[in-house]
């Protein structure tokens, strides 16, 4: 694979869920959790996926890893197709098992994601043994090395998850993802369940590991302050769609989509006494099982026009590496975020 080729490529990824309309009803509706998203991540870089709760961020991450089966689209890692609906390819069984060595996940809840019946040494060694990198004492030795790299001393290897703090458990979760030396890791809100004082420690650890192991991250979060610090490029999701993607500099200094602008206007700033252009969204958030016609954001957008209510916007290039899905992005005006990059 060429150095200029993205490590991860996602094209028109779709994941829908059928749901019943009522307890006694036979009718069904469809929740469009991920509704045709596309992006790439270069090797050694971090792509942040942000948006309100329920926008489809976590579902997208799991569909990329094939933890939930996508309905349509294509996902490739290091030039190898993981899923492609056009060709009918879907890795399964032994082929998917081999591919999982290169793609791992860090879960949001560091307690629920660990088996309470297994010591942390066993939890990390389990993946090593499943992929036949080592057996028995050899697997535990490799697990010990990774745990130490993540800040957990060897004297703690026989302890169980309930004996650790939330930050320590997340270090174990990171070690478990790192044990197979993957190229790509999905970090699904890895610090959301942690105290603020511990969050910076975990982010610094992830940054160090990225540099040491040449890791590529998909970092899922709703915290734009964290994303600003940690990510190289960012995608903003709204009701299953990517409404704006670009570099950290472009999205934080020159956002063009009204939704991105509204999110950034709510980010706390270093000098709270300075006036900011706070954007307050009105209107109701549509149900993902009953999306409106046209642009999905038009029910809350202060700039919505007739075309927004009738036609779905295509993706347009604002500048190189900066794209937006909005009919009226040229008319939204300059937005001063007050955020220094």
General shape = globular
What's the alpha carbon Rg, rounded to whole Å? Answer: 21 Å
Q: What percent strand? A: 15-25%
Task: Summarize the main sheet.
Answer: 8 strands, mixed
User: Any idea of the CATH class of the largest domain?
Assistant: Alpha Beta
- The largest beta-sheet arranges its strands as 7-8-9-3-10-11-13-12
Mean pLDDT over the residues: 90
CATH H-level superfamily of the largest domain: P-loop containing nucleotide triphosphate hydrolases
Helix content: 25-40%
Which regions have little confidence, pLDDT < 50, spanning 5+ residues? none
Number of strands: 13
What name is given to the CATH topology of the largest domain?
Answer: Rossmann fold
Structure classification? alpha/beta
Provide an overview of this structure.
The protein has 341 residues and is of the alpha/beta class. It has 2 domains: 224 residues, P-loop containing nucleotide triphosphate hydrolases (Rossmann fold, 3-Layer(aba) Sandwich); 87 residues, no CATH class. It has 10 helices and 13 strands. The strands form 2 sheets. The chain has an 8-stranded mixed β-sheet, sandwiched between helices. The protein has a 5-stranded antiparallel β-sheet with strand order 2-1-4-5-6. A hairpin with a 4-residue loop joins strand 5 and strand 6. Helix 3 crosses helix 4, helix 3 packs parallel to helix 5 and helix 5 packs parallel to helix 6. The radius of gyration is 21 Å and the shape is globular. The chain starts with 7 loop residues before the first strand and ends in a 17-residue tail after the last strand. The model has no long low-confidence stretch (mean pLDDT 90).
């Amino acid at each position: 694979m060429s150095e200029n080729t993205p490590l991860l490529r996602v094209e028109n990824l779709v994941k829908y869920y059928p749901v019943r309309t009522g307890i006694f009803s036979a009718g069904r509706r469809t929740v469009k959790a991920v509704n045709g998203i596309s992006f790439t991540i270069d090797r050694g870089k971090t792509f942040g996926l942000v948006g309100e709760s329920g926008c489809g961020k976590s579902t997208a991450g799991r569909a990329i890893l094939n933890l939930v089966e996508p309905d349509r689209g294509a996902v490739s890692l290091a030039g190898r197709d993981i899923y492609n609906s056009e060709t009918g390819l879907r890795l399964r069984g032994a082929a998917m098992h081999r591919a999982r060595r290169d793609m791992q996940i860090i879960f949001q809840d560091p307690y629920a994601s660990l088996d309470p019946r297994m010591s942390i040494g066993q939890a990390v060694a389990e993946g090593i043994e499943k992929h036949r990198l080592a057996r028995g004492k050899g697997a535990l030795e490799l697990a010990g090395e990774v745990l130490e790299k993540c800040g957990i001393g060897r004297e703690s290897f026989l302890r169980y998850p309930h004996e650790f703090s939330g930050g320590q458990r997340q270090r174990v979760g990171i070690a478990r993802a790192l044990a197979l030396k993957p190229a790509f890791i999905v970090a699904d809100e890895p610090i959301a369940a942690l105290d603020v004082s511990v969050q910076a420690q975990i982010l610094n650890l992830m940054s160090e590991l990225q540099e040491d192991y040449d890791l590529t991250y998909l970092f899922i979060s709703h915290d734009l302050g964290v994303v600003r610090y940690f990510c190289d490029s960012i995608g903003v999701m709204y009701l299953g769609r990517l409404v704006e993607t670009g570099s950290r500099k472009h999205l934080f200094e020159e956002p063009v989509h009204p939704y991105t602008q509204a999110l950034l206007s709510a980010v706390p700033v270093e000098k709270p006494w300075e006036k900011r252009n706070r954007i307050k969204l009105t209107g109701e958030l549509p149900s993902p099982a009953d999306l409106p016609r046209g642009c999905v954001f038009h029910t809350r957008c202060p700039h919505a026009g007739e075309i927004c209510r009738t036609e779905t916007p295509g993706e347009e290039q604002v500048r190189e590496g900066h794209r937006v899905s909005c009919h009226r992005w040229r008319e939204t005006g300059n937005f001063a975020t007050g955020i220094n990059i």
